[in-house]
Amino acid sequence: MRRSPVLFAAIAVVFALVCIRLGVWQLSRLQQRRAANAVVAARLDSAVTTPAQLPADTALARFRRVRLRGTYDYDHEIVLAGRSHDGSPGVNLLTPLRLPGRDTAVLVNRGWVYSPDALRVDAAHWREPADAVVTGFVETFHDPATGAALVSGQGRTLRWLDAGTIGSLLPYPVASYYVIASAAAPADTTRASADGADVPPMPARLDPPALDEGSHLSYAIQWFAFAAIALAGTGVFWWSARRGRRVAHAPPAPPLPQ
């Protein structure tokens, strides 16, 4: 047997095994994602709790529903730049909520507002009543990233929520987590006060995280398909090579009678 068919078959089999391994890995990732989604869904569906009842570990507190009562400190509001909503550029407004009887404030993401450059906004236009009861879910700050989180020359505008940078912007301690306020009213509606006067619109509240399964299943199917194609192609090549050898070594046909 010539070396080239054997080498081709060996390469194809190795390729198929690699594809199968990648397919199994994608199925494992799918199971991990489903398990993580189940945890998030259970926490989002859990009973509303208070800050004092949250687990001290922020990883365990993440996505749990919480209700806060306090006063917004608009003088130290933080703008999170580069946020989009339904394809439109904008920013998120994060306002410290001072809780009664506590020195530590909780940062509340009140939602998204439109900004043409996704950087600058008249935050005062979007102020809600200072005394507030906020219901939302817990989120953790981002891991430290390369570069400065603070946008130069833009006051308290951040590119991402870095706990260290936020702590340097506030004159009091802030909790190790922040709260994303639940949906209450659309951003483009004007609310009426008790005396009938119009008050500024509210930011568009952010939705909970989407609990989709991603592309792991489709990727797994693709890898398994590649493996099947490689093995099937090897079989066809092997059969063709053997058939060609049989034809080449077959005795010549006897001459036709005259």
Features:
258 residues, five-stranded mixed β-barrel, two-stranded antiparallel sheet, 4 helices, elongated
Structure description:
The protein is 34% helix and 24% strand. With 258 residues, the protein is of the alpha+beta class. The strands form two sheets. A five-stranded mixed barrel has the order 1-3-4-7-5. Helix 1 (3-44) runs antiparallel to helix 4. The protein is elongated, with a radius of gyration of 31 Å. The two termini are 39 Å apart. Mean pLDDT is 85; it is low at 185-195.
Present the secondary structure layout.
Blueprint: H1 3-44, H2 58-61, E1 65-72, E2 78-85, E3 88-98, E4 105-114, E5 131-140, E6 157-158, H3 163-169, E7 174-181, E8 191-192, E9 198-199, H4 216-249
Parallel strand pairs: 2-6, 4-7
Antiparallel strand pairs: 1-3, 1-5, 2-3, 3-4, 5-7, 8-9
The secondary-structure class comes to: alpha+beta
Count of separate DSSP helical elements: 4
Q: Spans of 5+ residues with little confidence (pLDDT < 50)?
A: 185-195
- Main β-sheet, spatial strand arrangement: 1-3-4-7-5
Distance between the termini: 39 Å
Mean pLDDT: 85
Biggest sheet layout: 5 strands, mixed, barrel
Strand share of the residues? 15-25%
Helix content: 25-40%
Radius of gyration: 31 Å
Q: Given the C-alpha coordinates, what overall shape results?
A: elongated
* Total strand segments: 9
Secondary-structure element order, as H and E?
Answer: HHEEEEEEHEEEH
